[in-house]
Description:
By secondary structure, chain B is mainly α. Chain B has twelve helices and no strands.
Amino acid sequence: MRKFSGLFAQVAIAATMACAGGDGHGPNALRIPLINDPILNPVLAPDIGSVLINKVIFSALVRPDEQLHPVPDLATSWTTSEDGLEYTFSLRPGVKWHDGEPFTANDVKFTFDQVIDVKSGSRLRSDFAAVAGVDVIDSLTVRFRLKAPFAPFLALLGYNAGILPAHKFRDRKLTDATDFSRSAPVGTGPFRVANAAAGSAIVLERNPAYYGPTPDLDQLIFRIVPDVNAQVAQLLAGELDIVPIEPANLPSVERAKSVTVVRNPIVQHVYVGFNQSRPFFKPPLVRQALDLAVNRKAIVDGVLKGAADLPRGTIPMVLSEFFDASLPAPGYDPDSARTLLGRSGWSADDGQMLHDARGKPFAFTLLVDKGNPTREQAALAVQQDLRRVGIDASIETLEFATLVRDRVLPGAYDAVLIWWTTPPDPDQFSFYTTGQDNNHVRYSNARVDSLLAAGRATLDVAHRRELYNAFQREELSDPPVLVLFYPRELLAVSRRVKGLPSLGLRDALRHAEQISVRR
Amino acid sequence: MTFLIRRLVHAITVVFVVCTATFVLVHLAPGGPAVLADPKLSLEEQAAIEQRLGLDRPVSVQYGIWMSRVARGDLGESFLYEVPNRRAIGERLPNTALLAGTALVLSVLLAVPLGLWSAMRRGGLVDRAVSGLAFVAMAVPTFWLAIGAIFTFAIALPLFPAGGATTAGGAGGWMDMLRHLVMPALVLAAVTTAELLRYMRSSAQTALQQPFVRVARAKGLRERAVAWRHVLRTALIPVVTALGIQVPRLVGGAAITETVFAWPGLGRLGVQAALGRDYPLVMAITLFVSAAVVIVNLLMDLAYVWIDPRIRLES
Amino acid sequence: MITRDSSRRRAAMAGAMIAILALAAVVGPVLYQTDPNVLDLSNAAARPGTGHPLGTDESGRDILGRLLAGGRVSLAVGFAAVACSGVLGLSLGALAGLGGRRLDALVMRFTDAMMAIPALFLIITTLALFGTSVAGLVFAIGATSWMGLARLVRAELLSIREQTFVEAARALGAQPFALLTRHAFPHLLPSVLVNVTFGVGTAILMESALSFIGLGIQPPSASWGNMLTNAQSYLYSSPWLAVYPGLLILITVVSVNVLGDALRDAAEPRS
């Protein structure tokens, strides 16, 4: 009888414990949501979710500090040759991979050989197009040879280029190593994979052999939650700790006492790109007029609830070293806009809609990607503002994949509301230089071409600053795109989280060993 | 025996048609897979990806490859996840089976007795309340019900977890999974229960009105028991039919419930694959689910024959 | 007790509800002049007040206007999709029921295959691949819900074919096709009507599910489905944004189902 009641008591206790509350207070773990199963290979990772988790598992040669400058990570020091064509890195000794093997220069060479190989499935190739090759000098020294001087090189090394272990890929391609990419990757980061349940969660545990300070957290858990509202719900229920949110979620989150909202500037500019191979948009005067016609402040306050900064050109403000804050922010002046449009040959009749001398109306289609309420609302606001100056813009929402592949890349569009997220470097050569692959707005300005080319090749910071400030000034009179705002990343963070760096999440996670939670 | 063989051939033909139909559908569509939708890709990189995924080959060749793969049991490899589809499906299948299975069992357990009671006491309080609730349950969009449930029972009243199948990083165990299963299973079961209830009610009504029931009642207890068993059998036939229709519905409905509750299932995988234009995965999942449905229907047909041997002769 | 009278009464009430909603949807946007598409970001999620009898939504647009415009769209999609599936179901069912053995088998295999694929899946795949326009939406929903009707029609036609009066008439030289049309279709009408009525509810719910996934009626056009979806983010701060469209969907679908139920009771004679 006693044995029976003892068993009963045990079951009862277990049942009570199981029923008692959610995961609210308790585990020494940080829980972050992802939308989809990640690919745990930084060279192959195609989406932001994979990038986030890979930043924790894999270290890179350098990483960005709170001012976004590259500081040593796997590399302890480096030298650059006079002509800027060679970078020699001294690697940190005594670093071990998660499986115990030693980290050497061979791993760096292997990783970058894969990165620049077009057949490997690498997603980083365009970032490192300037790299000619990598040589191993000795087991802890590696040299990169560049095709031309390339100022953004260090920033890019600390961006998404995690280092892969050569010994795990001895006889197979990156894309064939399914186990590695799905459940058992090997990196040198402060956390390693403990277990991965498909569609459910990837649980990372502390790496006791980490070369930096030992992480405080026992676990870092990435939960797969595909719906943003469900993520917010789990945050409010205490099951998640950090959730990137949209401005639309702010009212719900701000009321919760257990959660605080963090607004960090990120290296991104959101813009309306006008396709300048269409005759409407070719004259710089027209684009200046369009710049004046849109009420950015109303969009930032109304759509983004203040979570953005007003722009002054395409270089994000957060790159403060290269950003000329003395330049005026574009004003909202629909009357001047109309005047400028008038000078370009557009006049209005009593209907208030603009048309040219031959009666053709100023009408076009603005594309925006589907499913993001912030951008959709911004597009609607832009449409309304343009209507007020007599321009008839109609909106078409497309799924992002279709938008990019079928319309943007081949240049088959009038205008598109889109964004560029860039590494912490002001280089925008591939976006705004004549003829470049990423210059999908077909912008062409000879002075800008030379400024951006020089900016990319100049290693001296002071000189670079002058070049980019000149670029910023040139953009006032010949805007390549209509920059709407520099968004801030909105993170809803549980109050029990401590030590989170004030950076965008992807850069903050490079310092994962500093984060802790209050128990 | 011939019946069984005929049904088997029928099933295989259906699966073949599904196979071809999905391929045609997926390859007729304009645009391309999401893996190619990166504004930073150069033309050279695009071409390399297309070649690696086999997209540069003519459609007829791709069809041939697809069909021969299916015959061997190889369902291709996902674009988005870079895993063999069989593995991707295999990892999620138990979760959806658990969820849909629980929902099905719950709805049968709820619908059969309630339907019977409603039929016996027609117009009574239980009948009207249950009918009313059923109507409402069938008219509420699933995602609304799901998010409302989370809000009420996970946030406002912290009774159940807000999502996921297990407490990540926790010890796990079946008690943990059970807690996570309750809300999504109930939400998923809502519509199914309502529909089964109405079928059960009307078929039980018909069965109860048969003459032998009245006679049995008049005659006394023993005959009543015999009549009961017969009533149940007769009443259950349409319900079994209804069940067959519910299975594909459940898998489809599961997609939305799984998305909101972050349940790692097949339905959600299918939706994400479709949205990401992951052709191989879309085809693999559609084929797999349809094959499963066909098999379930086959089993249902066999169940019919067991319940009522007359049916075999009629077909 | 469920008598013919009570079922007629229920049908009448449900029918009236639907008529009111349809009327409001059609006539409403004409009578009520506030533009449902005008953004007013400084006045988002406002309570009922001047100019906005039901308040504003998350973008500052007038809710009442959007409910009316959205009702138009949601109901139109519901009815059009059902019409589409009705046409498909009738034609394919007729083909199977009236054609020869081979045609019957062919059509039925195809129908079985379509029934085996979960409807939501098929629609999502179709829409994700071909893009969403109102026409596409109507066709996608219609093309995935005709199977039940086709089976029904086929079964009825097959059973009628066997009946003696048809054989007699054929012996007398009457055209089989015309005969069947005159006798079969009136016989079919009740079941078809019931099926179609329920179909409207299903189509409306399907549209809202698709909006949730992002494949329904695209913004800035309003539909009850996408209004409900957009309101989900505001559930904790402005829950009433979800209540209006949700309630309307609920009322519409319940009315439609009650009507269908009553029609079915009326159509089947009770012993």
